[in-house]
Amino acid sequence: MNPAHSKSAAQARQPRISVVIPVFNEAPFLAETIARIQASGVASEIVVVDDGSSDGTREILQGFKNTPGLIAIHHDLNQGKGKALRTGFDICTGDVVIIQDADLEYDPRDYPRLLGPILDGKADVVYGSRMTGDVPHWIMYFWHMLGNKFLTLLSNMLTNLNPTDMETGYKAFTRDVLSKLVLVEDRFGFEPEFTAKAARLRSRIYEVAISYTGRTYAEGKKITWRDGIRAIWCIFRYNMFR
């Protein structure tokens, strides 16, 4: 066999990876986030959705307009993380999609961990857990951690799954799974909605440990107790009512 032909065939089998980044007022971190994704060497495509930012995010993205493989979309008004993700999902073309927040809490160097079970043909969906494993984790606020564990437990009771971190912002999944999901949540309700609907599809869901460098509210963390109340509502709605 011609080695060059063999190498070409192997490359042809490599799936395209799309990274979708919802952004709202993360100008201090956005350029570094994009740089780290590029440095990972994993992404075939980066789709950034500016969700009505007012802090110069649009101008930063303008500086990337000639970057191969990077697509920037702008919402005129802030509509929420879930809506920004749906916009990105409609645009992206990859065989596998990774969700990447723009605030550097999640490290693109963990992409090989996140993608491993999918590329090995074992999983359709992979969750990156902040609650397990031997990689470095930021010590969370106690009540934030407790709320996360409560929401995960409640979700697990209704999906009959056992992830340790349902609310994680690091999720990877195949195009096939994405094409079968009808997602409607506009804000942080995306996480329990996605979990409920992926479980209903009987997707093969795996979990891997990831590193996590959290932020304080003073540093710009946006999720609040109101989002926790919404998450409870979403857990019941999307698991019990179709």
Please give a quick description of this structure.
With 242 residues, this protein is of the alpha/beta class.
How would you characterize this protein structure?
The chain has helices at about 5-15, 25-40, 55-60, 80-90, 110-120, 140-160, 175-180, 190-200, 225-240; strands spanning about 15-25, 45-50, 70-75, 95-100, 125-130, 170-175, 205-210. It has a 7-stranded mixed beta sheet with strand order 3-2-1-4-6-5-7, with helices on both faces. Helix 6 packs parallel to helix 9. Mean pLDDT is about 90; it is low at about 5-10. The chain is built from 9 helices and 7 strands. The chain is globular, with a radius of gyration of 18 Å. With about 240 residues, it is α/β, with parallel strands linked by helices.
Oligomer kind: single chain
Q: Strand sequence of the main sheet, in spatial order? A: 3-2-1-4-6-5-7
* Low-pLDDT residue intervals, each spanning 5 or more residues: 5-12
The H/E string reads HEHEHEHEHEHEHHEH
Number of strands: 7
Q: Helix tally?
A: 9
Distance between the termini: 53 Å
Sketch the major β-sheet. 7 strands, mixed
- As a percent range, the share of strand residues is 15-25%
Tell me, rounded to a whole number, the average pLDDT: 89
Name the overall outline.
globular
Helix content: 40-55%
> What is the CA-atom radius of gyration, in angstroms?
18 Å
Instruction: Give the class from helix and strand content and strand pairing.
Output: alpha/beta
